[in-house]
Specification:
Length: 125
């Protein structure tokens, strides 16, 4: 039977060190390493700095298997991370664990959604 596999890990990180949360190049590298840790294939990475007190850094990696995103708000010592991957060969939990190891938040919350789908029947030809 055909099976579509999708896994989605997303969370909030509190107490992220500001020096890391403000470093666009470091965060770009972290997202690429997270994608690789998940077994995903990086297609393109975009990042930008949003200026001002309520600004921060956003990094989004388009992976052939879906996407990985990291957004920081340095003045709040806060970040969010989102990894959605498709395919049995990928594991977004590995990406999440790498981000935790690197950013070392004081605490965090994490959510998981199994977005897999069993194909129950094929439409008639």
């Amino acid at each position: 039977m055909d099976r579509i596999v999708g896994r989605h890990v997303y969370g909030s990180l509190y107490g992220v060190p500001r020096d890391k949360a403000m470093d666009e190049e470091y965060l770009r590298g972290l997202v690429v390493r997270a994608a690789e840790a998940a077994g995903a294939t990086v297609h393109e990475v975009k990042s930008w700095v949003i200026p001002g007190e309520k600004g921060g850094v956003s990094v989004i990696a388009l992976v052939l298997e879906s996407h990985i995103a990291l957004h920081t708000w340095p003045w709040y010592d806060y970040a969010t991370f989102d990894a959605y991957t498709c395919g049995e060969h990928t594991d977004p939990w590995r990406a999440w664990r790498l981000v935790l190891e690197e950013l070392k938040p004081r605490h965090y919350t994490v959510q998981y959604a199994d977005r897999s789908q069993e194909v129950l029947a094929k439409p008639p030809a």
